[in-house]
Specification:
With about 425 residues, this protein is of the alpha/beta class. The protein has one domain: Glycoside hydrolase, family 3, N-terminal domain (TIM Barrel). Helix content is about 50%, strand content about 10%. α9 packs antiparallel against α10. The longest helix is centred in the C-terminal third of the chain and has 23 residues.
């Protein structure tokens, strides 16, 4: 149930050996490749060196997939707008075929590199009143729109397109947060009552209903935000109220739920740590708590690695107990290994806490196993990936830029998507 950060040497374009060993030793459920994502790795996907880069990258990912015993999620935090087509342009079309084809090309491009899990699209409502969206995704072009009724029609087709293109999509972020902040730096506090943010829950629920009819079960990513009017004691990531109650109801307990990165800087700020120190470090003495907090505030280094491993283990534990099926650990291999060892030890404890953790892990394992079997045609490491249809992408981009939305039906029919 762990999606682990895997570091790629940007100079050589290869996965560092110690991260390959981490995957094989622990049989991790998935990886997030960093420092060599597809947008940076290629020169140009259409011609020349870029085409060779795609083949090299796909082979690198294929080698990694072959290491664990079970099919592995290989994820990237990916936005297709870098290619000159923004989600907002697609949303403005208000055309189901345009939305479907956008998702399809996004999935095709990721699959060409060997990815099978997209941390995309954003399933949120852009706030025109404040001209902002959530956190680091404040750029309007990364959203599909600000009108829930239109989003309800657009987003299921985008998500379906991702799947048809060859990757499992992720709806993010939950809960809907109509404030702007960056969890890499700070934990945002939203003091709006539940009924004031109901639009986001309703959109997620309606999109999930439509996806059920299409037999699609995406991943849903939560985020680190705090709303004392919904849960006065926990950040959403660690909240049973948010994850096990509100989110499970909205998505009818289908698909999988993953955390956002548990190594994000906002979780390690002194003001946040001081509020939650007694809860997170309840098994430590006051002197040990002070020592751990001081090391965390100092910042990450080999000297403070121990403290980060201790706290991230607690974050992972709370996220699992809140109802997450997957936890995203974007720490280095030594910390990730320490978290593996700590969670395994906790799950083996003959105590109420150990038994509860074991029960939660087993419940998530059943869901993960079912989803991996459902999408075995995507996750199978032997899948041969087709080249990205660059010329088709260019024609689609030209049509969207010219607002020739009437051409989208031809693109969809040309690829035979309507019958799939």
């Amino acid at each position: 149930m762990v999606v682990a950060y895997i570091d790629v040497d940007s100079r050589t374009g290869s996965i560092r050996e110690r991260y390959q060993a981490l995957v094989q030793r622990n049989n991790v459920g998935g990886v997030l490749l960093e420092n060599a994502n597809a947008n940076e790795y290629e020169t140009h996907i259409e011609t020349g060196p870029g085409t060779q880069s795609v083949r090299q990258y796909d082979q690198m990912v294929a080698d990694l997939k072959a290491r664990p015993k079970t099919p592995m999620f290989v994820a990237e935090d990916y936005f297709f707008n870098d290619d000159g087509i923004s989600p907002m342009q697609v949303g403005a079309s208000n055309d189901a075929d345009c939305a479907l084809f956008y998702g399809y090309l996004s999935g095709k491009r990721m699959a060409a590199y060997g990815y099978n899990l997209a941390f995309s699209p954003i399933v949120e409502i852009f706030d025109d009143a404040t001209n902002s969206g959530f956190s680091m995704h404040a750029s309007k072009k990364l959203y599909f729109g600000s009108e829930p009724a239109k989003l309800r029609e657009t987003l299921p087709q985008v998500i379906r397109g991702f799947e048809l293109g060859g990757v499992i999509p992720t709806m993010k972020h939950f809960p809907y947060v109509p404030i702007q902040y960056d969890p890499h730096k700070v934990i945002g506090t939203n003091r709006k009552p539940l009924e004031k943010i109901q639009a986001g829950l309703t959109l997620l629920s309606e999109v999930s209903n439509d996806l059920e009819k299409l037999d699609i079960e995406p991943v849903v990513m939560t985020t680190h935000t705090f709303n004392p009017l919904v849960d006065a004691e926990h950040v959403a990531t660690f909240s049973k109220t948010w994850v096990s109650d509100l989110l499970s109801e909205a998505i009818q307990d289908r698909g999988l739920v993953i955390t956002d990165g548990l190594f994000m800087g906002g979780l390690y700020k002194k003001n946040f740590l001081n509020i939650y120190r007694d809860e997170l470090l309840r098994d430590y003495s006051e002197t040990e708590k002070d020592r751990i907090i001081a090391m965390l505030v100092e910042g990450y280094s080999p000297k403070t690695r121990e403290a980060f491993a201790i706290l991230t283990t607690q974050f992972a534990l709370q996220a699992i107990m809140a109802g997450h099926d997957l936890i995203l650990l974007e720490a280095d291999d030594i910390i990730v290994q320490s978290i593996f060892d700590n969670l395994f030890r906790l799950a083996q404890e003959k105590s109420a806490k150990g038994e509860e953790l074991k029960k939660r892990i087993e419940a998530s394992y059943v869901k993960i196993d079912r989803i991996k079997k459902k999408y075995r045609h995507i996750l199978d490491p032997r899948v041969q990936h087709e080249a990205f249809p660059a010329e088709l992408h260019q024609r689609f981009k030209t049509a969207i830029s010219a607002k020739r939305y009437d051409l989208c039906a031809g693109f969809v029919d040309g690829e035979g998507l309507r019958e799939r």
